[in-house]
């Protein structure tokens, strides 16, 4: 690890707080920030916009080198574009959320996006926080600090429902089901599934505030930097 540079990998299931935590940690420590889920969502958005059958892995694999996906790494204003167009809104649609696990399971998609992620991380001289599902295991196995965030499905559904301003019990239950279904798909695919790296620190955020999680991760990064000096 270079004196002033640190690479932090934050993985975990949906809604555990990876993006919020990573952005806040990167801002506190003046590091770059990369939301790798946004890249898989951008690929999925492009497939849907171009009429590709997202449940046909061969069809997805045949065209996955076509969209030009670019990510801006400022944690205070991260960006995601496809062929130069801002897709930060459309990639959060329910259609994209429902299709993203199928598209991200295609090995050719993962190979392309993994290469992009490694290139972005290498271009951040001061260091970066990269969050996703396979960062500690596959994308950046030599990361200086690896964190695996977890939280109960109930806590995650409550957080996501609050974000979406969903209040009805049936809708909260449907949100919980959708989260669990996506986790199952993401952790059972054969290529680079959602998994905790053996050397990652697991942080259960169920009973923690976002500020407490951020403090915990910042402390782990600072301890790691001190050990290197
Ligand atoms: N520790 C926490 N306590 C309460 N709310 C939290 C906590 N961490 C995150 N949140 C909230 O939970 C929601 C989901 O967080 P976030 O988007 O960061 O999760 P994520 O793991 O990146 O999700 P996904 O993988 O689906 O993108 C957000 O509204 C966020 O503000
Ligand atoms: N490193 C990653 C990041 C994300 N994915 C896939 C699986 C997720 O369901 C989807 C969307 O991610 P989110 O925006 O919810 O963080 O993208 C992946 O396979 N690998």
From TrEMBL:
Question: Which residue ranges does the record assign to the Cytidylate kinase domain?
Answer: 8-222
Pfam families, sorted: Cytidylate_kin (PF02224)
Q: Which chemical reaction does it catalyze? A: CMP + ATP = CDP + ADP; dCMP + ATP = dCDP + ADP
Q: Which residues of the sequence carry a binding annotation for ATP?
A: 12-20
Q: Which Gene3D superfamilies match?
A: P-loop containing nucleotide triphosphate hydrolases
Q: Supply the CDD domains for this chain.
A: CMPK
Q: What is its main location?
A: cytoplasm
This chain belongs to the protein called Cytidylate kinase
């Amino acid at each position: 690890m270079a004196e002033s540079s640190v690479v932090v990998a934050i993985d975990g299931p949906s809604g555990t707080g990876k993006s919020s935590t990573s952005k806040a940690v990167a801002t506190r420590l003046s590091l770059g920030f990369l939301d790798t889920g946004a890249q898989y969502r951008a690929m999925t958005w492009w497939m849907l916009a171009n009429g590709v059958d997202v449940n046909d892995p061969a069809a997805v694999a045949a065209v996955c080198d076509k969209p030009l996906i670019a990510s801006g790494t400022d944690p205070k204003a991260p960006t995601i574009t496809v062929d130069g167009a801002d897709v930060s809104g459309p990639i959060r649609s329910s259609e994209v959320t429902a299709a993203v696990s199928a598209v991200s399971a295609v090995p050719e998609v993962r190979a392309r996006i993994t290469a992009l992620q490694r290139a972005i991380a290498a271009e951040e001289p001061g260091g970066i926080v990269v969050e996703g599902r396979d960062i500690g295991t596959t994308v950046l196995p030599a990361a200086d600090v690896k964190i695996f965030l977890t939280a109960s499905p109930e806590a995650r559904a409550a957080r996501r429902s609050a974000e979406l301003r969903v209040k009805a019990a049936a809708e909260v239950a449907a949100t919980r089901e959708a989260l669990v279904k996506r986790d199952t798909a993401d952790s059972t695919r054969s290529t680079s599934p959602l998994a905790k790296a053996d050397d990652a620190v697991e942080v259960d955020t169920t009973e923690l505030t976002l500020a407490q999680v951020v403090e915990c991760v910042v402390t782990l990064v600072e301890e790691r930097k001190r050990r290197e000096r």
